[in-house]
Specification:
The relative contact order is 0.17. The chain is α+β, with helices and mostly antiparallel strands. The protein has four helices and seven strands. Strands 1-2-3-4-5-7-6 form a seven-stranded mixed beta sheet, with helices on both faces. 27% of the residues lie in helices and 31% in strands. It has a single domain (4-178), classed as 3-Layer(aba) Sandwich (Aminopeptidase). The two termini are 15 Å apart. β2 (54-59) and β3 form a beta hairpin.
Length: 183
């Protein structure tokens, strides 16, 4: 791969939304119905980046994929868990970008002291299930017909991966802006 992975910047929002929008419009990979405005999407990114990493894969000045971590739940006792998402531009699919992003995001989350990483995957998305299995994720749940999109009910596979030991007391989560992570 000729590109590089780096932290997303506010000015990347338009390009990132350009990758995400076709998933909203054309797939049930995301259960979102409407493409958010660039302003709304920028605000989402900024909120997530207060604590969690948002990274991009860039090649020759063009963003071809992104990954981020976010809260699985918001109650205090859940603070050692994280949910991840990875999206790759259609023209860059199959080039190892998703794999590279996943390796990096998991490394960052581990260094932030998160204990468990969760993903929710549309059960029709076999490629994503296989990618996560490659990284040691195990299925830990299934919700049948929990999402309705494109005139069809969709089920979701829940998968998890332990990132760090469950120490007592747990190590404090290091917010992304305090981690000093270098690529």
């Amino acid at each position: 791969m000729k590109g590089k992975i780096r932290f997303a910047k506010p000015e990347d929002a338009k390009a990132i939304l350009g990758i995400y929008a076709p998933y909203i419009k054309n797939t049930a990979i995301t259960f979102e119905y409407e493409v958010p405005s660039e302003e709304e999407f920028s605000a989402r990114m900024a909120e997530i980046q207060k604590k969690y990493p948002w990274i991009v894969y860039e090649e020759e000045g063009k963003i071809l994929g992104y990954a981020y971590g976010g809260p699985e739940y918001t109650r205090a006792a859940y603070q050692w868990t994280v949910e991840t998402s990875v999206y790759v531009a259609a023209e860059a699919s199959g080039k190892g970008i998703g794999t590279a992003l996943y390796e990096k995001i998991l490394d960052i989350l581990k260094k932030q002291n998160f204990c468990v990483c969760y993903v929710l995957i549309n059960d029709d998305n076999e490629a994503s299930v296989k990618l996560h299995e490659k990284y040691g994720f195990k299925q830990n749940g299934f919700r049948k017909n929990c999402g309705y999109k494109f005139e069809k009910w969709h089920s979701v596979v829940f998968m998890e991966k332990q990132l760090n030991e469950f120490s007592v007391p747990p190590k404090a989560i290091i917010p992304i802006n305090e981690l000093n992570y270098e690529f």
